[in-house]
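Question thread 4412

I'm putting together a teaching handout and wanted feedback from people who do this every day. The idea is simple: show students a protein as raw sequence, then show them the structure tokens that encode its fold, then repeat with a second protein so they can compare. Below is the first pair exactly as I plan to print it.
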Amino acid sequence: MVTPRYIDFDADSWAQLRASTPLTLNEDDVEKLRGISVHLDIEMVQDAFLPLSRLLNLHVQGSQLLASVTDTFLGTPPRKIPFIIGMAGSVAVGKSTISRVLEALLSRWPQHPKVDLVTTDGFLHPNAYLEERGILDRKGFPESYDRRALLEFVSKAKAGDEHLDVPVYSHIQYDVVQGEHRVVSSPDILIVEGLNVLQAGEHGAFVSDYFDFSIFVDADVDDIRRWYVERFLELKSTAFAQPDAYFRRYADLSEEEAIDVATKIWEGINHVNLVENILPTRDRATVILEKAPDHTIEKVRLRR
């Protein structure tokens, strides 16, 4: 297997690539975008994510130009085809927060005001299906997703379908909401975020085949474990405490008991998925964002 070539940037050299790009988010915007137990401030947005949004904007413009050239050559009416970005990484690494930040930044570029974010959670098989097959404890592993439905979604998006149904997932119920969908309508940019979206194989088409650009959020495994436990503790007193929460049984645990439970879940499920399925896809990404222990981006690797 040939190892892809990357250009490495430290935080300071990457921040310089912002050039003269104006920051279009303020402190209130950043506060709303921050995830659970994920550090995010205006400086991080400016130094790490604004240069990335500039790079993405250039890619989008190039992609749109190429599409118009092809339409001209074929003599066909121009079609609006979304630029699709794949966002991958471990549970608790902060990829959802980064996806929301990029959605906000990219939607403020004048060339592509309509940006949609879709997570792959809605494409998980229902709990009843997973229980029937004895794989509920492997939720988040590749086999727990309806990969055919997810592939159909991204292929239709790339074909220019104007209205796409996305299944709704409830983190409170820890399950797909039966019969409920939201509609994605003709975005200029579509961000698809999930644990295993960069997976590929030897046969057939894969979701990643339809990506124009991909990002992998990386960090030291011990840091990710710590972030997972910290998030579990915060959820214990918030989402888990809701009367109809699937994990309501964890809300009354002591902090010591909660740390023990979270650590066992991490070691038995999430760490296994990370090592076996997620990390092996890292070198398929266009950009790898490497995080420091405090969630700041300390290194950026750009694939050439």
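The second pair follows. I'd like the answer to focus on this one:
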Amino acid sequence: MDYIEPICPFDASAYTGTPDAEPTGQRMNVPAMIRQLDQLIHAGRAVKAQHFLEKRRVEAQQLGDWRAELSILNEMMGQYRFGNKREEGFAAVREGMELIRLHHLGHTVSGATVMLNAATTLKHFGRAEEALPIFRHVGRVYSDNLDPGDYRFGGLYNNMAGACMDLGDYAGAERCYRMALNVLGLGRGQDNDMAVTWCSLAELYDKQDPLDERVGQCMERAWAHLNAEGLAHDGYHALTIRKCLPCFDYCGYFLYVKELKERLEEIRERT
């Protein structure tokens, strides 16, 4: 059944308070689990990654390790977006948000980061109006707890921009994309994320006017970041290429598309 309890208007008070203590008893090794998951994702084994997460979640529930379960639900949201599994994505959002509510994590950075992923999932599956209040709440939590240049603001602004774009607020979307670029530009090693943001900005300009010269300028900037000196051609770079390829193809950069596909194949053969 395609249904999720409406979250808009978002009532932050239901998710905040004094966070619960750590779970007692046996704990799951979450970092080791994430390493295993990354290996599957970087090898392009998306279906197996989803099954892996579903099994690990059952284990976390059996252990009573709700923090591990929340981490797993957070990863499941991303995998269901990637696999375009709408019902499963909504279920992961609903269950993840419920854990955050039950354990009063809504004003913590870790809780807000899961909420960011939940809002991104809602947006991805056409629920941008419900996602925006959650994005704004995450922004308040981040502003209260993080340095303004923290890389996590980049992800927030990028995803909020997408929601604004879906709702026809092009000025708001451009403002958010520019804020994301400013944050990402403060750190080193952000070329992959910068490339994705420039592609997104190109799509925004194209949506308003396909003849806007800024479309081409954004695409060239994205290409420059994809070819930045010292950028590792690893699994994360492969994910970035998959995100950027449709935009390069749509805008007619066929030689770039050919080179990026060849690079993808080289990465796949090494993993």
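Top answer:
Good format. For the second protein you could add a caption like this: The longest helix spans residues 46-63. The two ends are 37 Å apart (CA to CA).
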